[in-house]
Structure formats: C-alpha cells, structure tokens
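[#protein-structures] MJ: dropping Polyamine aminopropyltransferase here for a structure pass
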Amino acid sequence: MIEPHAPAPPGAPPPWAGPARLPVRPDTGRFLVLACVFVCAACGLVYELELVALASYLTGDSVTQASVVLSVMVFAMGIGSLAAKRLRRHAAVAFGALEALLALVGGCSAMALYAVFAWTGDWGGVWASGPRWLLVAFSLAIGLLIGAEVPLLMDLIQRIRRQDAGGAVADLFAADYVGALVGGLAFPFLLLPLLGQLTGAMLTGAVNAIAGGALVLGLFRRDLTHRARWLLLVANLAVLGVLATATVLVDDFERAAREAVYGKDVRVALQTGAREIALTGGTDGRPLDLYVDGRLRVSGRDEDRYHEALVHPAMDGPHARVLVLGGGDGLAVREVLRHPGVRRVDVVALDSAVVDLARRDPALSRLNDHAYGDARVHVSTADPFRRLRGPAPVPSYDVVIADLPAPGITASTKLYSEEFYGLVRRVLAPGGRLVVHAGPVSARPHVFWTVEATLRAAGLRTTPYRVEGRDSGSGDGRTAGASRAPRDWGFVLAARTARPVLGLDPRGPRPATLTQRSLRAEQRAAEATRIGGLAASTLVHPRY
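AK: finished. structure tokens for Polyamine aminopropyltransferase:
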C-alpha cells in the first residue's frame, strides 16, 4: 500500500491526471478531442499564412516575411511547449483559456497590422520600425499559444483512455497535420478570395474559440469548478463579441484605413485576389494617382517624365514591332504610339484589373490617350517570364520595354534575372533595343547597378541613365508622393551587338520633358554613381 506522501511508482500517472469524468463514452470523447485538434491545427496554420500574406502584401518582400514569421513561430512553439508543462495540473481549464486567447490574438492580428501600416506609414524602413516589430510580436505570441496546445491535449486524451505515449502522440500528430493541410488549402482557395484577409482571420478566430470552448465546457466540464466554468464561458463570449463587432465594422475600418493610405480622394478601390488597386483624383483638375498594393504606381503630377524617359530613347531606331512587358496602365503604350512607323504593339500585362481600369476609367483612359482603343495594340495578361519561355514561336521585336515593378519586390525579382534577360534577348531583332526600369539610382544604387550587371551577364550591351522627378519620390523609385529618398528613376538601355547610343529619334515626336542634351547629362549623372564588381542576379541566387 502506498503511503499518502510516498512517491508514485515509475510509470504511474500523477494524482491530477486520473480518469476524466466524461458525459460520453471514452471512444466518443477521444474522437471529440482529436476533432478539436484538427480544427485548432487548421486555425493555427491560417494565422501563420495570414501573417505571411499580409506582411508580404504590405512590403512586397515575401521571402523575408515568410522567413521571419515561420522561424519566429517555430521557435515560439518550442518555448510554448515547455511553458505548458506548468499548466498540466489544470489541463482542461488551461487549454480553454489558451484557445480563447489564441482566437483573440490570431483573429485580430491582421486588422492590427493593417491599422499600424495605414496610420504610421510604409514598412520600408529599418527593422526597428513599429510595424516590423509588431509582426514579430504577433508571430511570437501566436507561436507560444500554438506550442502550448499539444502538451495539454496530450494530457486530456490520456485522461480519457490511457495508452502508450507513442500511440497517443501518433494520433495527435495525425489529426494535427491533417488539420494543417485543410487550413493551408482553405486559406488561399476559400478564405482569401471569398472573405479577404481581415474577415477571414476573424472568422478563423471565431471557429477557434468555439472549438476550444465547446471541448472544455462540454466534454471536461465536470473537471472544472463552478467559477472556472463561468469564467471560461464569459471569456469565450467576450472573444466572440469582439470578433463579431470587428467583422461588422470591417468595411468602415477598411474605408478609414484606405483614406489613411491613399488620402480622402479615393474614387475606385478594387480587390483582386490578394491585390488591392486604388485610383484617386483625376477629376476637377486634381492629378490622378494609381496605387497597387498600397504603392503609388502612377502619379499624374509627373508620370510624363517617367514614361517619356522610359520609351523615347528606346525608339531611336527601328520600331515597327514593340513589346511592352508590364505597363498595364497604358501610359508607356501612349508614348510608343506617338512614333510614326509603329505597326504593332504587344502588351504583356501583369494584372487584368489594371488594364480594365486603363480602358474604362474616364480619367485614366484620358491620361493614356485611349491607347487600348488603337487597333495596333494587342493585350494579353500573363507572367512575362512564362510568356517569353512558352513553346509558341515569339516574333522578333525592334523594341522591348520592361515597365515592371522595381526589383526590390520579391514577386518581380525573377523579371530582373539573367535568365529573364536571356529570354528577352532571344526575341530582340538584330538591331533591336531593350529598355529596363531599374529603380531609383540615388536611393538604391546597388540595386540599379546589379540590374545593369545582370543585363551584361545575359550578353547585352548597356547604356545606363537616369532622370529626376519634379518632387521627392516613393521608395520604389517610380512613384510620386512623400518619401525618405530623393526622387529619381533609373533606366538601362540595352542591345544585342553594340552599345546603344542614348538619343532621341529625329523623325519622332519631341518629348516635353527630354532633350538630347538633358539625356546626355543624365547619362553622365548615372555613370558617376557606378558600383563595379557586382555579380548578376539569377533565379537561384537573387541579389536584390
């Protein structure tokens, strides 16, 4: 007989881990616990993906954001598992409290991150900036709470029916991994397209709270004191109330946040998958601005300086057939069509929604001179890399204009790779020219000269140049608006055989913002910033 204060024999469960008093049969109770593991795992993975997606949307650097979120979460899950050892004496009530807190933190994380982004500025600064650390804080908090789940669930399932530890772990992990699969598929194919990031995260939090609360208050209620039952019930109802209120107010919140990001003059706001497109101004004499994913892509204040500098030097030579990569706004096409002798313009746009706006919005179509109404213009929506690599024969072009997002955005990095420029080189006619928008020279000279080095590595001869904007510009180097960086745009003109001479077609139109003399001065200004010895960027080793 074991004395009351004698140590338990090896392998015996501690006194607080005795059989649970269940209202159902043990097999049913075990199934319910595993079902809760399945649901909680699905919710946990949705929280992870939602943080990665939102941070990538706000910064454009998906590789960095995914690495930060996932590594911090995995680390925190380990710490959470260790910390949960102290909660095993009260596994049921601890699990219920953890799930309520996880539902609140995970469900509100997207709204909190977007609010900080909208009302404090962009995320392009140093890692000490508030939004970046808030991302780390949410990743850490959610990881801690997810990590604490498994030890507590292990205790609960063992209290239903004792079995060997290996078998119990196998059952829990099987339910956990299958739930993660469902959550991982539900996020991109169901939650994101149908509900959006904010509402999707809050709905996930509500499901999480209901699953955790129902398991503890329903299956293990006899293990709880009267006070604990009421506290858990009130906590779960409060969490559901907060999430429901936020869901009801999400449209008002998005409008207020959109005004904080874009200003109060928002005329059009579209959500296409994970991308947000907004138009401001363009009426009553106000300049038109086009934003994509919170970044100003077109500013009516000085878009002419950018597009004239991008297009006209490349058109100083044969230009019967022109390929425009990107440029869905139609503004580069407008400049191309000003040149006599253009017979065909093929546009490979990144986003059909931008092309649709360029065709139908009165202000934007007026700004691009209704370029898409010209019979010589043929538009397709595709990934330029896949389009150029496709099996169908691609005709030779006299001019290729790469009007693409700056290479600092992860999604566009492959479009600034040696492999991509090799594909472009194949479609250039023998005397053809390629022009590339390579980001701001003064703010990001390393990136600019890496683009130039990558073009040379692809077998092209290059002539770099830059133009200044009228005002200080945004961080991606193409856009207008307030920024910490001086405003300029960097370009690289390239050809297959000889180094192209920077000039303007004497038989072509006279650009309003460019002259032969100013171009030569801008070429010298760009060359003065040259950084030598840079390696080319490739698909397997991106260097931006």
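MJ: nice. Confidence is low (pLDDT under 50) at residues 1-8, 123-128, 472-486.
AK: one more thing. Residues 165-219 form the longest helix (55 residues).
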